[in-house]
Amino acid sequence: MSIEDQKLKLNEIYPEFFEKKEEKREEKKGLPPLPKAEKGKVITRFAPNPDGAFHLGNARAAILSHEYARIYGGKFILRFDDTDPKVKRPEPIFYDWIIEDLKWLGFQIDEIHMASDRLEIYYSYAEKLLAMGKAYVCTCKPENFRKLRDEGKACPHRDLPPEIQLQEWKKMINGEYKEGEAVVRIKTDLTHPNPAVRDWPALRIINNPNHPRTGDKYHVWPLYNFASAIDDHELGVTHIFRGQEHAENETKQRYVYEYFEWEYPQTVHHGRLSIEGVILSKSKTRKGIEEGKYLGWDDPRLGTIRALKRRGIQSEAIRELIIEIGLKKSDTTISWDNLAAINRRLIEPIANRYFFVADPIPMEIKGYNEEFIAEVPLHPDHPERGVRKLKFTPGKPVYVSKDDLELLKSNEYVRLKDLFNVKILEVSEEGIVVEFDSIEYEKARENKWRMIHWVPEGKPCEVLIPEGDELVVRKGLLETDADLKVDDIVQFERFGFVRIDKIEGEKVTAIFAHK
RNA sequence: GCCCCGGUGGUGUAGCCCGGUCAAACAUGCGGGCCUUUCGAGCCCGCGCCCCGGGUUCAAAUCCCGGCCGGGGCACCA
Questions:
Q1: pTM of the model
Q2: Measured CA A128 to C1' B14 distance, in angstroms
Q3: What ipTM was assigned to the predicted interfaces of this complex?
Q4: Tens of pLDDT, residues A252-276
Q5: Nucleotide with smallest C1' distance to residue A377 CA
Q6: How many whole angstroms separate alpha carbon A106 and alpha carbon A406?
């Protein structure tokens, strides 16, 4: 029986076999459906600590959260988890930057909350748990507690009655206890296989918080797991997207949900996201900035959203890439090739072309004694955008790039793009002498002569190229009439796509995006 | 040490839940060709992957066990 006959036969006796296959194929594009998601009822959140700039690593949870809220016509909440005024201190500027960056990524933020505005809420739930006998105020020295915990033993405060716990709590609130002297713990299972889960801390004291938003008004601050657990419920969050590193936190938070008989949101854990050769760590970035190694949070070498933007990466490219990576639990390292390929597709149609000659070398041209104005389209596929004009003047040199030196050998020919073909006479790093050969492009093509770009004169231009942890500066000449504005994304022909970063008088500074 | 995850071409993902249509798909990369006043794009051809070992089964990338490798957590950080 041939394959076709078999298929026909199978279709007779078992038609469902073919139907299922069709369904499967269709789901490929975009994100998979979310478990337990109902149209219009999905509420997601992104909860960053504003202690640094938003970066690609954070973007995974953020984009997934937002994307699903949109797919299901639900709500996306931005919540600043700014409850650590000490170790991971929030800074005012980052609140604004994160909102800005999210908007730049095309987010519609339905609600914004600040954990630091919600301390009274955390307090009231803490009191309830204390009263319920599900939490206690522990005044053990941290080392002592840790020791007991590791042995699976209760600390002396654990089993004191709720009335005492509430009294102790008052002492925490009114300042009788100082930093490090008391902490509220959630009762869990003292024999839990993971010691970190055992009676985890929920609130602690900070003496002089000097919090950027609430100053010294509050001295008792919730820890992440407590604040987050309460907030996710209070704000009605239905689905949580977070990194694999938070998997254990979920175990902790579930105790709180169990005590209050709340339903825990659906959680989706994804792997960590990094990008080839780029540092994402906030603390390392901060250090580099303080040491003067980086220009700032938007240094083109960094993986912050602002840095990517500064390089001319489109928000759509970042979104597409993250959606393509999807929900995988394994860690992923994004390659620049992939990001660049997506971005190139997006900017190619909008980027006008210009000649930028890096490390210019003068080229003397003999044998052509008339002025010649080369007219080059701003974009080869969009002639309606007009042309740039480059004027060749007899007796004056043109400039070509040192990068093209290897293409220039005595007695060989090259074509100066959009000008004419020349024969090379002499070559050195100080200067090149050539002789006019012919005008026709066809001749260059038939002979497979290489084509190089050039400028008759130009304005000073610097291109900043991030190469791993180095920032290479290429100096050169940009065609004089290039009409550029800051933020323009253009293509320097045969060099790469760049974003115009700065214009000071004549001088243009650009940042390299990719080839 | 204890506790979670994960391992498909160079890179990123699909397939794994529900074993057969998978000698494995898509994108990117790399090599070649066509086209084209650069590059790029486009079109065509090619390269390249199921971590290892057992088991179950007529049949395993897919299920089970073991190993190896990688990541993460074990804070009065988030």
A1: 0.89
A2: 48
A3: 0.86
A4: 999 999 999 999 999 888 888 888 8
A5: B37
A6: 45
